[in-house]
Write a structure and sequence with these properties.
Oligomer: heteropentamer
Order of helices and strands of chain C: HHHHHEEEHHHHEHHH
CATH topology of the domain at 1-13 and 33-114 and 231-316 in chain B: Rossmann fold
Number of strands of chain C: 4
Strand order of the largest sheet of chain B: 6-9-10-3-11-12
Distance between the termini of chain B: 36 Å
Helix content of chain C: over 70%
Low-confidence stretches of chain C: 318-323
CATH class of chain C: Mainly Alpha
Mean pLDDT of chain B: 86
Number of strands of chain B: 12
Bound molecules: adenosine-5'-triphosphate, leucine, magnesium ion
Radius of gyration of chain B: 21 Å
CATH topology of chain C: ABC transporter involved in vitamin B12 uptake, BtuC
Helix content of chain B: 25-40%
Strand order of the largest sheet of chain C: 1-4
Number of helices of chain B: 12
Shape of chain C: globular
Structural class of chain C: mainly alpha
Number of helices of chain C: 12
Largest interface: C-E, 51 and 59 residues
Mean pLDDT of chain C: 89
Radius of gyration of chain C: 20 Å
């Protein structure tokens, strides 16, 4: 609601007077079961802000919890878009909420940089001007997983399972596409499912030499356990939906050796970023922390560059080039980073932690 | 519940059993001749698994009479009611109402054809007021359904007495008519109140049915059944739980019901009442008709005495 | 669509279905008993089950047992976990009854109020494990999936000759366990005096009290028994699936309730039949199509069955008074 | 004094149904309670049996204050009500219903005897042992309710309109039964509309009018009382 | 004069309202409505504290108001089904989803259905069914769904119906998720059309930012709906529902066509649910299956019950509180669901008749409470 919410203290009061007093919003699942794949990235952004010497500028990061739910994200987005003191958005973290809110941000003319929303259609099917992201889209991730399966595992009979969701299903579709004849069977499951007996018995019939799962941790853990319980020991690989510390915890011993693909390069344990992050948040940087850091950095650079309005910031972001922590960044007209800039890493679950195994470069 | 917000409620207080109602408003129009066959059970058999509740039963009810249906416990009297009102479908045989076959028809349709009843185990709408219970009965004859209620679409030209008194509304009503819903609602309220008076429980019209004493509940059931303007009304043990004085009153009530134009079928175990009020009696035993005739004939029938009445010392 | 997959693996799918269904059935008992007596859907029952699974985890953690422990230890730990889960679940059920339902009963609240209160309780219990305990104790509590050590390792005990169907120890435990518990409960309710009291209260609480039945005791008993059955289900569940989660009860609860209705709510044997039936239908459907359509088929089957048998497969055990 | 109710007040919400009535029943007596519709007879029975609590007054049974006891606790002490409108368990069979009557009893052999006694009294019940009670005719249900009450071997049996819905022959029989069990040593309190029968058979009676006791005396006295005759016996 | 005030003092608020002269009642109602329209601009302290955008990370006040009104429409509809007709519907979200999906499927250029129509009839890529045409489509679709679901299942009693309706809600959601070729599956449909209106600042009149316009639109619709729904209660129809709720068999024998009236209740409920879904989808301009989980159905039922089922104003209150409070207390972050659960239980225990029960229900409840209390006085 433009012009209606500028009193009652909503905008922190004094934005009219000060020259460079802005807010940046981070929107994502900050609570709920998926928080562990989102919170580190927002922490990363906060770290970038804390380390910034803004001179005259005073910038704050406001966190908006959407629980990753598109329906809950829209009022949040309307609020952000309607409050002129916000000049940028970090997020959405998930593809679904991003899809639901990007028109709102477009209407509000406020630039967004997503640290982790990977669904292909966000930029490829109906791109909006304000949307940018620091991660490659899932067409590549699917290809990367397929490539890993073919080259590293040498699989010829892959069993592909997905969770029927906006993220897992297209990812699995893409894997299937790239694998071609090397896929033996495909099955679909549901979010919230815990008994995978029908899928397992299909696996027993198919006798795959590798298994791919498109989905999130909650279902991956019981699925993998039941696979191992049934005595199937084919290698298991999933996408970035499993890229969180919780995966190892949940799956236990059965998860030993499971592989997680992520469009995120490993952060060296002895890098300054890792050290700073550790100091600030008491743990190694988690999922997409570097991307969150980079997103914030771009916004801050825009302010340094003299951008003071949303339009100026938007212009700056779209034209931005520079090296980030995660990759070297330049957005194309759809808001994507050049796909040759990205690399995928296969992480292997060893004793509960994900350790980088090998880099995979998919062909587009 | 002492809230008497509605105007009608406080009109009569102590006159309970006396009929102060306006009979013009509650009498029904009947379409046939007194004495013609109104309802006919034609070789009706009804079985529940092994139990034969009705076994080849034949009898007729004639318009304008008060027919008694008696018999030992479990003889099949209530079952006959259930078959006549659509609750059960006979296994064999036909039931004809005004010449039309009604076996197997839904209860509410049968009600619309003109049969209403009361229940042996009282079945009122316990959380509705007495008045509302009767209104539900009146609604059976009303036409307005959801669309009419929502949009007041169906409008009728009001008669002089239906027109509002005051100026603007009166002229508006003259031009646009009054919705059928409004008129029906008004008529229903008036009629319900009259009926409550008629059965003698108007003093507690706005109380929830569940809070009424047993006797009131019985009478309320009768009022509710009458509200549906039935040509045939079936009373299942209306005097159960009444003391002799009350039974006496009930007899009067039953006669007055007939005088309104209804035909009455009554199940009752109280012989004094049955003999005193009915024109004719049908006796069932073990699902079979064992006798039929005038009260005097039946009372003298040895079969009936053996099966039902017992030694004729003090049956009341 | 792949009917061949169903036919060729019919034995296997049936076994899977029975396994899944046994757990539904055990949980369904809790719904059915409470419903039978109080005409109320105890929405918090799914969480009674959830508490049971956490209790199993707790016992294993305290005992320090892990996969590969000695046979004696395994048996002891499993029995102890069973007992603890039954106690904890029964306790939770009783607590819900006492804290939430009882005050409502005293005030004579209508059934829908119980329903919403149940939903509230369910949310509270879920959040106790998802949030409150996490804040107090940290992991493993929280809104994530948690690993439970597979103390009882899955081993094939025998292979059904001719069918080439391997039957594992865990399956035997689940199926036999569920059926034994069911039979015990059924016998108790139908044969014992207290059981008769339960049925009497179910049909007419006032008259039951005139027969000397203590209504409050019966209600407590029903919650405790239903809870204990959910506890058994919880143990069997963890034996088979080795995980738990703060909101794990939701879907199982929903399915169990469906099973109870399918079998005829208020009817104990109905819960067993409904549970097994639902489990088998689900697994068959997933075999023919895939698991993403499972619920659609399950509910369609439910509707079709209720069309022909409006009070479930076995009907309500409480007869209806007639006109 | 086996049962004594003192100054009992019972209300339903805002309606007061009993305005402080006192009733006494001595061991071995047959006492009846008569009165018009809504006089409060059923309310009195409810209060005595404990289905309803009193807002004032007390109930003592067998010398013990039972005012604060629940219905099931009173039953265990031998105070048994056969409620108005039957109140059978509609989903149970005839046998199971009878069984419920013996719910608190442990004496297996005696229970078996009582079965036979009830079936003797009501052969219809024996015929229909397996029938679901809810599907029985009104009168059959009434027999079942009485039979079931007998199964609890009460010290004091309270019957609320036991003859309601029964055929004339059976009414006779019911009253014979009342006399018989009274002779066997059970004390009886009965509410009846069939005032003539009730008064004839009872030692003492109370007349209730709108929540107050207006008359009391022996059965014979009240039978002769002109006002009672007019109001309750239908004889002017 | 003093006599009048004396007479007033003894009365409860509701009764006072009944006794107030008609002009007074009209005036008060007008004020309430005017205030409701003014709400998005409410900025006068301390009243402005009710706004949801005061705290950091708060959400847009007008958007929240819009959502509240949409849920109020839902609650009014569900109140007809649950509160008046006494049918427990645990799958109401299905109708809500249908409303949202119908407008998306026919009105969005992104929808496979529209794409199929485009190619079949050789229409331009910009073409889609116009918004105004989508409304009757959405309403008809939900109405048909209501009848379609109701016709075979309404014969079921009580809780059997509950589980079947719950299943219906799930079937709608899962079908929407799985039928990729028709609904875009889990990805959902974007570019859902908005009501037509003059453009300003290069944006459509009904755009995603100016939420107060949506709020006013929804509010106007809500007021109309309340006006109509009120008519049902004290009518032949309302009585029929009540009678069915009390004793269906007896009602039938008294001439109440039970099935017909139940079906009507379902159809009315379905239509209102669909309408609410339509507003929601259109405002979001995006529809996806996950927005329609079963839990939402429970929330809807909770709204009706918490407010006091059977009373429109109760349902409105319930919808308001259950939507508003979680938004107002966003600061609680991780504690929100817990707080919500505790609040739900507490409210029910403390006020089991609902917050604003209908007078009938309040009376019923008083009686029952007396009964329960007295029977248990001795424990
Ligand atoms: N649904 C049913 N299932 C089985 N038996 C039934 C059913 N309904 C009635 N019966 C049996 O049919 C017989 C006739 O019952 P009905 O209720 O018609 O008797 P009645 O003549 O009304 O007796 P009463 O005077 O005691 O009310 C009874 O023996 C009863 O047990
Ligand atoms: N559950 C109830 N709630 C409210 N009022 C009640 C309730 N039950 C009875 N009453 C009222 O209490 C008074 C006494 O009723 P009660 O049933 O004791 O009378 P009764 O003498 O048994 O009459 P009947 O001969 O009709 O059985 C009546 O005015 C009745 O309306
Ligand atoms: C945080 C990530 C797991 C999010 C995921 N890539 C998505 O698009 O939904
Ligand atoms: Mg009968
Ligand atoms: Mg009485």
């Amino acid at each position: 609601a433009c012009g209606t919410t500028d009193t009652g203290g909503s905008a922190g009061g004094d934005e009219g007077g000060a020259d460079c007093n802005f807010k940046i919003a981070a929107m994502g699942a900050l609570s709920g079961p998926n928080a562990s794949i989102v919170v580190p990235s927002v922490d990363g952004a906060q770290l970038a802000l804390d380390q910034w010497d803004g001179g005259d500028c005073e910038v704050t990061l406001e966190r908006f919890d959407t629980e990753g739910d598109p329906a809950k994200a829209t009022p949040v987005a309307t609020q952000i878009a309607g409050d002129e003191s916000f000049i940028g958005v970090i997020g959405g973290a998930f593809s679904g909420e991003t899809r639901a809110t990007k028109t709102i941000y477009q209407d509000g003319g406020i630039p967004m940089i997503s640290q982790s929303a990977t669904a292909t259609d966000l930029t490829q099917d109906d791109p909006v001007e304000v949307f940018h992201r620091l991660v490659p889209y899932d067409d590549y991730q699917g290809a990367a997983i397929a490539k890993y399966l073919l080259d590293e595992v040498g699989a010829t009979k892959v069993f592909v399972v997905d969770n029927s969701e906006a993220y897992g299903e297209p990812l699995a579709d893409r894997v299937e596409e790239t694998l071609g004849d090397s896929m033996v069977a495909r099955d679909k499951t549901e979010v919230g499912q815990t008994d995978f007996a029908p899928t397992i018995s299909k696996m027993e019939t198919a006798e795959p030499d590798a298994i791919m799962y498109g989905g999130y941790i909650a279902e991956a853990a019981p699925l993998l356990k039941q696979i191992r319980d049934a005595g199937i020991d084919a290698p298991f690989i999933g996408g970035d939906g499993l890229y969180g510390a919780d995966f190892g915890n949940a799956v236990g011993e059965a998860g030993e050796g499971a592989v997680v693909m992520c469009p995120c390069a490993p952060i060296e344990g002895d890098s300054t970023f890792a050290a700073d992050f550790e100091e600030a948040y008491g743990g190694a940087p988690g999922a997409y922390a570097a991307e969150g850091f980079d997103a914030m950095t771009i916004f801050l650079k825009a302010l340094e560059d003299g951008a003071r309005t949303r339009a100026e910031v938007q212009e700056f972001v779209s034209g931005y080039t520079g090296d980030g922590l995660s990759k070297s960044i330049a957005f194309d007209e759809n808001g994507d980073v050049p796909q040759d800039q990205v690399s995928y890493w296969a992480y292997k679950n060893e004793g509960g932690t994900l350790t980088p195994e090998v880099e995979v470069k998919p062909e587009g | 519940m002492s809230e008497q917000t509605h105007a009608e409620s406080s009109t009569d207080t102590d006159v309970v059993l006396e009929d102060t109602s306006n009979h013009d408003q509650i009498a029904i129009e009947t379409s046939g001749e007194v004495g013609e066959v109104l309802l006919e059970l034609d070789h009706v058999t009804l079985r529940f698994g092994g139990v034969v509740a009705l076994n080849d039963v034949n009898f007729q009810i004639r318009r304008g009479e008060i027919l008694g249906l008696i018999g030992p416990n479990g003889a099949g009297k209530t079952t006959a009611f259930n078959a006549m009102t659509g609750v059960y479908t006979p296994t064999e045989g036909a039931i004809r109402f005004k010449g039309k076959e009604i076996a197997g028809i839904k209860p509410h349709t049968i009600n619309h054809l003109g049969i209403a009843r009361t229940f042996q185990n009282i079945r009122l709408f316990p959380e509705m007021s007495a008045m509302e219970n009767v209104m539900v009965g009146c609604d059976a004859r009303h036409k307005t359904s959801v669309v009419g209620v929502l949009f007041r679409t169906y409008r009728v030209r009001p008669s002089e007495e239906e027109l509002p008194e005051s100026g603007i509304r009166r002229s508006l009503a003259k031009v646009f008519g009054i919705s059928r819903h409004t008129l029906e609602e008004r008529a229903g309220r008036r009629r319900s109140m009259e009926l409550l008076r008629f059965v003698g429980i108007a003093d507690r019209a706005h109380e929830l049915a569940r809070n009424l004493p047993y006797g009131y509940q019985r009478r309320l059931e009768i009022a509710r059944a009458l509200a549906t303007e039935p040509e045939l009304i079936c009373l299942d043990e209306p005097a159960a739980g009444f003391n002799p004085a009350e039974k006496e009153d009930l007899m009067g009530l039953i006669r007055r019901i007939r005088d309104l134009g209804h035909t009455v079928l009554v199940i009752e175990h109280d012989m004094k009442l049955v003999l005193g009020v009915t024109d004719r009696i049908v006796v069932l035993e073990f699902g079979q008709k064992i006798a039929e005739g005038s009260p005097e004939e039946v009372a003298r029938n040895p079969k009936v005495i053996a099966a039902y009445l017992g030694e004729p010392d003090d049956a009341a | 669509m792949d009917f061949d997959a169903l036919i060729s693996g019919l034995d296997r799918h049936t076994l899977d279905g029975i396994t899944r269904g046994s757990i539904y059935a055990l949980v369904a008992l809790g719904y059915t008993m409470v419903y039978g007596v109080m005409k109320l859907i105890n929405f918090a029952h799914s969480e009674v089950f959830m508490v049971g699974t956490w209790t199993v985890l707790g016992v294993y953690t305290v005992l320090g047992v892990t996969a590969g422990a000695g046979i004696g230890m395994v048996i002891a730990a499993t029995l102890l976990a069973l007992l603890a889960a039954m106690l904890a679940s029964a306790g939770t059920a009783l607590a819900v009854e006492r804290i939430a339902y009882r005050p409502l009963r005293k005030k004579g609240a209508p059934p829908l109020i119980f329903l919403i209160t149940g939903i509230g309780c369910s949310l509270v219990l879920v959040e106790i494990f998802g949030q409150v305990l996490r804040v107090v104790f940290g992991r493993p509590f929280g809104r994530v999936t948690v690993n439970i050590p597979s103390v009882l390792e899955t081993k094939t005990v025998f292979t059904i000759p001719g069918l080439d169907l391997a039957v594992s120890n865990t399956r035997i435990l689940i199926i036999v366990g569920a059926i034994v518990m069911m039979l015990a409960l059924d016998t108790f309710v139908n044969k014992s005096r207290l059981g008769r009291g339960v049925r009497a209260v179910a049909q007419d609480a006032d008259t039951a009290s005139l027969m000397g039945v203590n209504r409050e005791r019966v209600i407590m008993l029903v919650f405790v028994l239903g809870g204990a059955m959910a506890g058994v289900a919880a143990l069997l569940y963890t034996v088979q699936y080795d995980i738990t989660k703060f909101d794990i009860g939701f879907i199982i609860g929903l399915k169990a309730f469906t099973a109870a209705v399918l079998g005829g709510i208020g009817n104990l044997r109905g819960a067993l039949v409904g549970g097994l039936f639902l489990g088998i239908v689900e697994v068959y459907a997933s075999a023919i199509w895939d698991s993403s359509w499972t619920n659609v088929y399950a509910f369609v089957v439910l509707v079709v069955i209720l069309m022909f048998r409006p009070t479930g497969l076995l009907g309500e055990s409480l007869g209806k008074a007639r006109a | 004094m086996l049962l004594e109710m003192k100054d009992a007040v019972l209300s339903y919400g805002k309606i007061e149904a009993l305005h402080g009535i006192s009733v006494q029943v001595k061991e071995g007596e047959v006492v009846s309670l008569i009165g018009a519709n809504g006089a409060g007879k059923t309310s009195t029975m409810r209060a005595l049996s404990g289905v309803r609590g009193l807002s004032a007054g007390s109930v003592t049974f067998n010398g013990e204050d039972v005012t604060k006891l629940r219905a099931d606790q009173r039953l265990r002490k031998g105070l048994v009500l056969c409620p108005e409108g039957r109140g059978i368990f509609p989903g149970m069979t005839v046998t199971e219903n009878l069984n419920m009557g013996a719910y608190t009893r442990k004496d297996k052999a005696a229970i078996e005897e009582d079965y036979d006694r009830v079936f003797d009294l009501f052969p219809r019940l024996l015929e229909r042992k397996k029938q679901i009670a809810g599907t029985m005719s009104g009168g059959e249900q009434q027999m079942l309710a009485i039979g079931r009450a007998l199964m609890s071997r009460p010290k004091l049996l309270m019957l609320d309109e036991p003859s309601m819905g029964l055929a004339p022959m059976l009414i006779q029989q019911i009253f014979d039964i009342i006399t018989e069990i009274s002779q066997q040593g059970t004390t009886i309190l009965v509410v009846e509309q069939n005032a003539k029968q009730a008064l004839t058979r009872s030692d003492r009676a109370y007349v209730l009018e709108t929540g107050n006791i207006v008359k009391t005396g022996t059965g014979a006295e009240l039978l002769d009382d002109p006002s009672v005759r007019e109001a309750y016996l239908g004889v002017a | 004069m003093s006599q009048i005030t004396d007479a007033y003092r003894g009365l409860k608020l509701g009764e006072r309202w009944d006794h107030a002269p008609k002009p007074v009642r009209w005036f008060v109602m007008l004020l309430v409505v005017a205030f409701a329209f003014y709400l998005p601009y409410l900025n006068i302290l301390p009243f402005a504290y009710i706004r949801t955008d005061l705290t950091s990370s708060g959400s847009d006040w007008a958007s929240v108001l819009f959502l509240i009104v949409v849920y109020m429409i839902v609650a009014v509809g569900l109140n007809v089904v649950i509160g008046l007709a006494g049918l427990l519907d645990l799958g109401y979200v299905g109708f809500y989803a249908l409303g949202a999906y119908s407008i998306a499927l026919f009105g969005s250029t992104n929808s496979p259905v529209v794409e199929a129509m485009q190619s079949k009839f050789g229409l331009s890529e910009e073409w889609a069914v116009p918004f105004v045409v989508c409304i009757p489509i959405a309403i008809t679709m939900s109405l048909i769904a209501g009848v379609f679901l109701g016709a075979p299942t309404l014969r079921l009693r009580g809780d059997y119906l509950a589980i079947v309706t719950l299943g219906f809600g799930e079937i709608i959601r899962i079908t929407a998720r799985n039928l990729d070729g028709v609904t875009n599956g889990a990805a959902g449909i974007t570019q859902v059309p908005v009501p037509p209106g003059p453009e300003s600042d290069g944006r459509a009149f009904f755009n995603t930012i100016d939420a107060e316009r949506w709020y006013w639109l929804a509010l106007a619709i809500l007021i109309l709906i309340i006006f109509l729904a009120r008519r049902l209660e004290n009518s032949r129809v309302g009585r029929a529902w009540l009678a069915i709720r009390e004793d269906e068999d007896a009602a039938s024998v008294m001439g109440v066509a039970g099935f017909k009236f139940k079906l009507w209740a379902f159809a009315i409920g379905a239509t209102l649910g669909g309408l609410a879904g339509l507003l929601f989808g259109s405002k979001q301009q995006y529809v996806e299956p996950n927005a329609f989980m079963v839990q939402l159905s429970f929330l809807f039922v909770a709204m009706v019950v918490i407010g006091g089922s059977g009373n429109i104003y109760g349902a409105l209150t319930g919808a308001f509180l259950l939507t508003y409070l979680p938004e107002r207390f966003r600061d609680l972050v991780d504690w929100r669901p817990f707080a919500f659960g505790v609040a739900l239980v507490l409210v029910m225990i403390l006020r089991p008749q609902g917050l604003v029960p209908s007078r009938r229900r309040a009376r019923e409840f008083d009686d029952r409470r007396e009964e329960a209390k007295e029977a248990a006085a001795d424990v």
